[in-house]
Specification:
- The structure holds 2 protein chains of 2 kinds.
- Chain A contains 14 helices and 11 strands.
- Chain A is of the alpha/beta class.
- Chain A has one domain: TIM Barrel (Alpha-Beta Barrel), CATH 3.20.20.30.
- In chain A, the strands form 2 sheets. In chain A, strands 1, 2, 3, 4, 7, 8, 9, 10 and 11 form a 9-stranded parallel β-sheet that branches. A two-stranded antiparallel ribbon of chain A has the order 5-6.
- Chain A starts with a strand and ends with a helix.
- Chain B is of the alpha/beta class.
- Chain B is built from 10 helices and 8 strands.
- In chain B, helix 2 packs across helix 3.
- Chain B is globular.
- Classes of the chains: A alpha/beta, B alpha/beta.
- Chains A and B meet through helix 9 of A and helix 4 and helix 6 of B.
Chain lengths: ~425, ~250
């Protein structure tokens, strides 16, 4: 198994009355931002990430949001660069760069290549479409989100793998010279993982590329449905997916006592309550961003006809194990159920959020690394949950000759 | 012919354009708002009493087929100009409502020979010298459309006490078309003001006194740029064709 540590990097250092303005995320004024506190929080995170490596996590997962008090990472490549130099062993897992936000994917390819080389080949380069709100926060047209995602991906992979110079004349990107000097250390290119939560199209796209899909804090039942969709698409292109194709992000806060753990875990509600985060009904799904087949349900939410999703209570989320909190033993017992039910080869533990103190965050990381993760590794071995770094599958379908031969043979047999 | 107008499909640039047409007299092309074409209204009836009114649904709006290639307001203007070619009409008065006014202005900059008059009603298309064009992407569809009416009763008359889910879906799809064609800069052009200087088609620039979408300065800017334009103000909001159907029709025809 590949076991990662994650925090959303919340910026909770603002006047507690500021939230009474009644707006969230996108329009929550940055006059509430305190750069001095921000500096402290960034450096606390660095200390925590270094501890995570020290106590044995396999990877540090990073992400990116914009105009979002729940996430201080405006550019995940910045943190990845810091960790490339400040750590020695952990994988640096970006989940990920929001490709449609890039007007110059070549530059992104260069940045990622530099991170991969500086880290000595430890980069996992995840890509995302970015939340709907991100499009508004960065002025990017939501109607072309998927087109830009797919084309930027194709261009980056091409820039990494095809000897330059060459020319790219695409729909959104035109580069008359593609010839980036910096190239990734990992060959043929760093692993690409695709995180997500809602979009069926993205699950299918990831499966067809043979990229692991990381389900972000979905319920056990929703996760199983995602795997079914993924498996069906994988079979179409000629391979049988396994745990190495499946990742899961879960909120898990560990403390020395149950009471302390529950108290800190309740902070996970911070971004679902005070800040509705990604789930603001209008901004999270600007027109054209989501699949047309979801349009009816989405407009009803946006116009107040249905309650927004992700509004479950803390108790409910504890009950259905979307949030796990407790002592190491209590968490391990629940995580066994998660592993048995969802069978991921990649597991990200989202340890700390909201106003959890640096001290408590450090203790949580220590307990995760020294007690919870060793138990998870044993379970992973028992349940045959190999991750991509155990079984070393091809980085993509383009490098899986067996799958492509099977797909071709199957197509020939069906007369396609 | 139903309710004083007929419906037909005219193919332009590979797209089936839905066209409503009614009335007699000189031809008037009416281009609808970015929120969509709500159909043949009292306004169109009033206009068609003295004019041959052509009301197309812009391709991609209200469930009609969209051209994936159509990615600018200038593309829409080209489609509308080609529609006039297909219909074989000349000496046309082009009436643009809001976003439709942006399209109409683009049409005029490309070719004035077919145009007799231009009527820009609460038109978008120019960067306001003061204020901004309202950002509908920050608010729910029904809230935005309500804000387009000075009199809420006119909104209710058109969409009912409770807007249907079907209408909400249509507004979202229309909003997507707005994004596809006018996202950045948002609902205005940086080149249009330069091109408008050579447009001398007689133009009426009509402004609703309570337009909450397009700042009032934009109408003045159109008048200053155009060679032969007069400014008219009518009481009502952005959807002046609903708030002031009769007086708007009269202003256009008179």
């Amino acid at each position: 198994m590949h076991l990662m540590y994650f925090t959303e990097q919340p910026m909770s250092a603002y006047d507690e009355h500021a939230a009474e303005e009644g707006v969230t995320a996108l329009l929550f004024s940055n006059s509430n931002f305190d750069p001095v506190a921000g500096s402290q929080l960034y450096n606390d995170r660095l200390t925590e990430y270094k501890l995570a490596e020290e106590v044995g996590v396999d990877g540090i997962m990073l992400n990116e949001h914009h105009n979002a008090p729940f996430c201080m990472q405006a550019k995940c490549n910045i943190w990845a660069s810091v960790l490339a130099g400040a750590t020695e062993r952990v994988k640096i897992v970006l989940l990920g760069n929001p490709l449609p936000l890039a007007d110059n994917p070549i530059r992104l390819a260069e940045e990622l290549a530099m991170i991969d080389m500086i880290s000595g080949g430890r980069l996992v380069s995840g890509f995302v479409r970015g939340g709907g709100t991100e499009q508004l926060a960065t002025g990017v047209n939501p109607a072309y989100n998927r087109e830009r995602f797919e084309e930027a991906h194709d261009l980056i992979v091409e820039a990494w793998t095809r000897p330059g110079p060459f020319r790219w004349e695409g729909r959104h990107y035109q580069h008359r010279v593609v010839n980036p000097w910096a190239l990734p250390m990992q060959q043929p290119h760093p692993r690409i993982w695709i995180p997500g939560v809602l979009s069926r199209e993205t699950v299918v796209w990831a499966a067809k590329h043979r990229y692991p899909y990381i389900a972000l804090n979905t319920t056990i039942e929703a996760t199983k449905r995602i795997w079914q969709t993924y498996d069906d698409a994988a079979h179409e292109v000629g391979y049988d997916p396994g745990p190495e194709n499946r990742g899961y992000l879960l909120r898990v806060h560990v403390a020395d006592t149950t009471e302390k753990a529950m108290q800190n875990a309740s902070q996970f509600m911070w971004m679902q309550g005070e800040f509705t985060g990604l789930a603001h009904p209008v901004w999270s799904n600007p027109a054209g961003y989501a699949s047309p087949r979801n349009r009816e349900a989405l407009v009803e939410v946006m116009n107040g006809r249905r309650p927004p999703p992700r509004a479950q209570s803390f108790d409910n989320q504890i009950e259905n194990m979307q949030i796990i909190a407790g002592t190491p033993d209590e968490c391990i017992r629940k995580l066994r159920t998660i592993l048995e039910e969802t069978r991921p080869g990649i597991l990200a533990l989202w340890g700390n959020d909201g106003r959890v103190t640096h001290e408590d965050s450090m203790r949580c990381i220590e307990l995760l690394g020294t007690e919870v993760m060793p138990a998870l590794r044993d379970m992973g071995a028992e349940l045959d949950l190999d991750g991509p770094f155990d079984s070393n599958p091809p980085v993509s379908i383009a490098y899986d000759e067996t799958a492509r031969a099977r797909a071709a043979s199957s197509a020939a047999a069906s007369g396609d | 012919m139903t309710n004083g107008y007929s419906e037909s499909i005219i193919e332009v640039a590979g797209l089936p354009i839905q066209v409503r047409r009614g009335g007699d007299g000189p031809t008037v092309l009416v281009l609808h708002h970015e929120t969509g074409n709500p159909g043949w209204l009292e306004f169109h009836n009033a206009l068609s009493a003295r004019r041959d009114v052509i009301l197309p649904t812009l391709p991609g709006w209200d469930g009609t087929e969209r051209g994936d290639w159509m990615r600018s307001v200038r593309d829409i203007a080209a489609v509308c100009a080609l529609l006039l070619d297909e219909l074989g009409v000349a000496d046309v008065t082009v009436v643009g409502l809001g976003f439709g006014g942006y399209v109409a202005a683009e049409m005029a900059t490309a070719n004035q020979s077919r145009l007799d008059r231009l009527v820009l009603v609460n038109a978008m298309g120019l960067q306001p010298e003061d204020g901004d064009i309202r950002d509908q992407f920050l608010e729910a569809h029904a809230d935005y459309v309500k804000s387009c009416f000075a009199d809420p009763a006119n909104f209710t008359a058109l969409y009912g006490e409770e807007v249907s889910t079907e209408q909400l879906v249509a507004w979202d799809a229309n909003r997507e078309m707005t994004a596809r064609t006018a996202w950045k800069p948002f609902l205005y052009s940086q080149t249009l003001p330069h091109l408008l200087r050579n447009v001398n088609t007689p133009t009426k620039v009509i402004r609703g006194s309570e337009d909450s979408v397009v700042p009032t300065t934009v109408a003045n800017q159109f008048v200053e740029l155009l060679g032969d334009a007069e400014l008219i103000e009518i009481n009502g909001g952005h959807h002046l064709e609903s708030d002031a159907a009769e007086s708007l029709a009269e202003a256009i025809v008179g």
